[in-house]
From TrEMBL:
Protein family (similarity comment): Belongs to the glycosyl hydrolase 20 family.
EC numbers, comma separated: 3.2.1.52
Keyword Signal applies: yes
Keywords assigned by UniProt, alphabetized: Glycosidase, Hydrolase, Signal
Catalytic activity: Hydrolysis of terminal non-reducing N-acetyl-D-hexosamine residues in N-acetyl-beta-D-hexosaminides
One of the Pfam families matching this protein, by short name: Glyco_hydro_20
Domain called Beta-hexosaminidase bacterial type N-terminal: residue spans: 25-161
Principal EC category: hydrolase
Residue span, Glycoside hydrolase family 20 catalytic domain: 164-330, 337-479
Protein name: beta-N-acetylhexosaminidase
Length: 515
């Protein structure tokens, strides 16, 4: 096929259908998608990216699109204010004209022969709509070097918005440490699936990963180790803020977690005075859980918690601070309740909403505290009682949503304690109706935790998260009425060529036909 070099708009008849992505290939599947038969938009060297006039945020989203497409198409793709009445020829990102039903993160995408328009109520909706547009372009549009093209976008109209407000992934940077660049790479990958929250597990027995000025030994000493004697590491505040800003530019909120009162050996090893017996334990590089605890009767413990939460909250623009609370097997039950109660109040005093692993429902939760369910069965009477009492639940059932479980017995990475999770299993549950007594209205959303006892590199992260994270993203975004494994498997397979272009080391699950 000869590609005209002049800036003409190609019509559908000269664009080979095989190069075009399709409305049927978008993950998560949109609320409504109506293709326009025979209509194709074509990005060319004459394309302009228009933004809502006077909106710096819409301009930033437009620049985000233009920057990526300049890399892969080699076109100039200037960014300009949209003409005031009708959008001009080109791709327009507009904060007007979207139906009210799309809410804060939804969008309407219309693709006609000469125009693409993404309309949203909020910039976040423009950004989510952009991810759909990316998936409607050929996979090569996501390349970092200039590709041949052409760059068709199939015509039609999509109206789309999320089922749940919170769609997250957790990365455990404590068992193994991952540099800023690795986290930013992951942020780029998850943004494509409209994930809006990145939970960073910043402390555990094996390492403390964030600089706290008032307790410098936490990062300096407590951050020096990792599982298996692998290199440790920690984020400076500037590093953490770079992650937060990179995520924010992609409309992703960072949730920092300091796990307490268990999972605290790295902190206890860093400061002898935090221990009930005044003796610092050794640093720990094994993978056992449940052996460490902050000293609940000691008043200095709360000075420590207050300092850490205060400093972390000051560099965290998002609404949440996660305080762990899981597997506190070395903390007496009464102490656990007392401690978690005080910790939640400290979080509130610093203007944040607490999230805790669902063990927290055994304490007296504040009404605003979110319980993150990580159990392996579909009923938990304590969580159901909390939900009945108004507690919101974040769904991360370990046997379905844990990204560190092996896919199959032979998977080299990962664990098996919660079972094997092939991609069809990861897709096989309804977050709004899974847990007895925890209905749709009690569910804040879904999150896929990636614990990293066995995970050491960016390639390892890719392998465990893809393709399962997109399955979870669809459970979190798409209406339950669209849920269909066969259709999803087709859409998921269509992501493979894009992951190849992006350099994502995904698991080639035999459950999927990869093109
Ligand atoms: C349980 S899930 C843990 C983590 C481990 C994980 C490994 C949870 C709240 N605690 O400490 O890393 O299993 O799968």
């Amino acid at each position: 096929l000869a590609i005209p070099s002049s800036p003409v708009v190609l019509t559908a008849s000269v664009v080979p259908a095989a190069t075009a992505a399709s409305f049927a290939a978008v993950v998560p599947v949109p609320v409504s998608a109506v293709p326009a038969a025979g209509v194709t938009y074509q990005i060319t060297s004459a394309t302009t990216v228009y933004a809502e006039p006077g909106s710096a945020t819409a301009q930033a989203v437009a620049t985000f699109l233009a920057t990526q497409l300049r890399r892969s198409t080699g076109y100039a793709l200037p960014v300009a204010d949209a003409p005031s009445s009708t959008p001009g020829d080109g791709i327009s990102l507009l904060l007007s004209g979207a139906p009210a039903t799309v809410g804060p993160e939804g969008y309407q995408l219309t693709v006609a022969a000469n125009t693409v328009a993404i309309r949203a109520l909020q910039p976040a909706g423009l950004f989510r709509g952009l991810q759909t547009l990316r998936q409607l372009l050929p996979p090569e549009a996501d390349a970092t070097t200039v590709q041949a093209g052409p760059w068709p976008v199939p015509g039609g109209t999509i109206v789309d918005y999320p089922r749940f407000a919170y769609r997250g992934m957790m990365l455990d940077v404590a068992r193994h440490f991952f540099p800023v660049a690795t986290v930013q790479r992951l942020i780029d990958q998850i943004a494509l699936y409209k994930i809006n929250t990145l939970h960073l597990h910043l402390s555990d027995d094996q390492g403390w990963r964030i600089a706290i000025d008032s307790w410098p030994n936490l990062a300096a000493y407590g951050g020096s180790t990792a599982v298996g004697g692998d290199p440790g590491g920690s984020y400076t505040k500037a590093d953490y803020q770079a992650i937060v800003a990179y995520a924010a530019a992609r409309y992703i909120t960072v949730v920092p977690e300091i796990d307490m009162p268990g999972h605290t050996n790295a902190a206890l090893a860093s400061y002898a005075q935090l221990n009930c017996n005044g003796v610092a334990p050794k640093l720990y590089t094994g993978t056992s859980v449940g052996f460490s605890s902050l000293c609940v009767p000691l008043e200095l413990t709360y000075t420590f918690v207050d300092d850490v939460i205060r400093e972390l909250s000051a560099i965290t623009p998002g609404p949440y601070a996660h305080i762990g609370g899981d597997e506190a097997a070395s903390t007496p039950a009464a102490d656990y309740t007392y401690f978690m109660n005080r910790a939640q109040n400290i979080v509130a005093a610093h203007g944040k909403t607490a999230i805790g692993w669902h063990d927290i429902v055994k304490s007296d939760e504040l009404p605003s505290t979110v319980a993150q369910f990580w159990g392996t069965t579909s009923s938990d009477s304590n969580v159901a009682a909390a939900a009945a009492n108004g507690t919101k639940v974040l769904m991360s059932p370990a046997n379905l949503a844990y990204l560190d479980m092996k896919y199959v017995r032979k998977t080299k990475l990962g664990q098996t304690w919660a079972g094997l999770i092939e991609v069809d299993k990861a897709y096989s549950w309804n977050p709004g109706a899974y847990l007895t007594g925890v209905g749709e209205a009690s569910v804040l959303g879904v999150e896929g935790p990636l614990w990293t006892e066995t995970i050491r590199t960016a390639a390892d992260i890719d392998y465990m998260a893809f393709p399962r994270l997109p399955a979870l993203a669809e459970l979190g975004w798409s209406p339950w009425s669209t849920h269909n494994w066969t259709a999803f498997a087709g859409r998921l397979g269509a992501q493979g060529p894009r992951w190849k272009v992006m350099g994502v080391n995904y698991y080639h699950s035999p459950k999927i036909t990869w093109p």
